[in-house]
Amino acid sequence: MNISIFGLGYVGCVSLGCLAQNGHQVVGVDVNQTKVDQINTGRPTIIEKDIDAIIATQHLLGRIRATTDFREAIFNTDLSIIAVGTPTTAQGHLNLSYIMGVATHFGDVLREKSEQQPGAFHVVALRSTVMPGTCAKIAAMIESRSGLIRDVHFAVVSNPEFLREGTAVHDYYHPPLTLIGTESERAGKLLRRLYDELPAEVVVAETKTAEIMKYVNNTYHALKISFANEVGNICSSLGIDSHEVMDIFCKDKQLNISNYYFKPGFAYGGSCLPKDLKGLQTLAHDLYLQVPVISSIHRTNEIQMQRAIALLMRYSHRNIGFLGIGFKAGTDDLRNSPAVELAETLLGKGFTLKIYDRNVHTSKLTGTNKEYIDQHIPHLSRLMVQDARDLMNWADVLVICTKETEFITLAEEAVGKVVLDLVRLPIDIDASSQYIGINWSQDAAEVPTMGLYR
């Protein structure tokens, strides 16, 4: 494939060499004549393991070259990769002037290219790290300057890179996955061809999803380092080998290093997480240590509770039916159940509630959970119904709090009702009903959470 790469910095230079090594014809484009001259003499523009040999070899084979002529590069390629810088402003925002400057070139040149090459379809792939919505802005600019239609005559797609300095070439050829963000099937197929040689899954997602991934990934990496350092500070104060602790921690691939807990939704609860988190926070406090990451975890949990309350405040004069009240599905444990806290908060605000939970009702009858119910939440006990159909007929709003399979059928039969899903069940909602996911619907996205309800 004929490819142009705009920007010959770190990402651009690595992409130039590696794509050429995979058999593509690649031209680099940069306003810096020195960088252009370096590539055209077989020298890389960066210092990075193995890239010097790759650039030299691919230059000798005639697969790479560089130019300052953006028009010529766009005309003679099918795919263009944008890898220019996105520096941070003093206020913390991204400076998109370089990207938008490149976008204006595409707007001008693609109009001319379309006239001279009827039927041409040019794909612009953004490798630079940008905020969600940037590809759409670039596409709109190209449309306005060219008169062409996005996803018909051209496409702007997100193709974020996950390269680490020092191991960039190795990372390029051994990625955990390859991510493409696009709504154009044609553009997605074209971009997939770049990665036929790589031993990794190609994931095609919505453009905004791909755009945010680099921020999510790197923020999590920063969180892991900060968490490990706070654990290390606690351990060293106690004379414990922190590296041994974290080595053991990382051996658990079922829970600690897994996707088990990485499911956005409602607040955590139960008897273990809150207690042990508080224990580690107290230990750090007693050791006179500052652990802001660990100390803030519960505050984030409280914010998620506030989010659910804010969503339900819209329906304060409606009948609210809870599907599930226990800590999790398949259990009658009510200790530190976030659903219990949510129900009690709503009752305090004057809501009218009823609750259905087969597990808790059964344990109440048999005595398994009776002592806790009688001592701590007898008022909730009086709100519980035995028959889910009775709750369905009575409620205007259903709140799904646990992942019970029977709740899928109940929610799908909730004709004309509001369904607030806190756990993301696979529900095929009736067209007359309104479905709201706490972290995965537009309605939920419009709800502010900071400091609304305490």
Automatic annotation (TrEMBL):
Pathway entry: Nucleotide-sugar biosynthesis; UDP-alpha-D-glucuronate biosynthesis; UDP-alpha-D-glucuronate from UDP-alpha-D-glucose: step 1/1
SMART domains cross-referenced by the UniProt entry: UDPG_MGDP_dh_C
Active-site residues per Swiss-Prot or TrEMBL entry: C272
Enzyme Commission number, as recorded: 1.1.1.22
Binding site for substrate: F162, L163, R164, E165, K214, Y261, F262, K263, P264, G265, G269, K328
MF-aspect GO terms: NAD binding; UDP-glucose 6-dehydrogenase activity
Keyword Oxidoreductase set for record: yes
Binding site for NAD(+): D30, K35, T86, T129, E165, K275, R335
Alphabetic keyword roster: NAD, Oxidoreductase
Broad class of enzyme this protein falls into: oxidoreductase
Catalytic activity as recorded in UniProt: UDP-alpha-D-glucose + 2 NAD(+) + H2O = UDP-alpha-D-glucuronate + 2 NADH + 3 H(+)
GO biological process: polysaccharide biosynthetic process; UDP-glucuronate biosynthetic process
Entry annotated with the keyword NAD: yes
Domain UDP-glucose/GDP-mannose dehydrogenase C-terminal: 321-428
Family label: Belongs to the UDP-glucose/GDP-mannose dehydrogenase family.
PANTHER family reported for this sequence: GDP-MANNOSE 6-DEHYDROGENASE, UDP-GLUCOSE 6-DEHYDROGENASE TUAD
NCBIfam families for this protein: NDP-sugDHase
Protein name per Swiss-Prot or TrEMBL: UDP-glucose 6-dehydrogenase
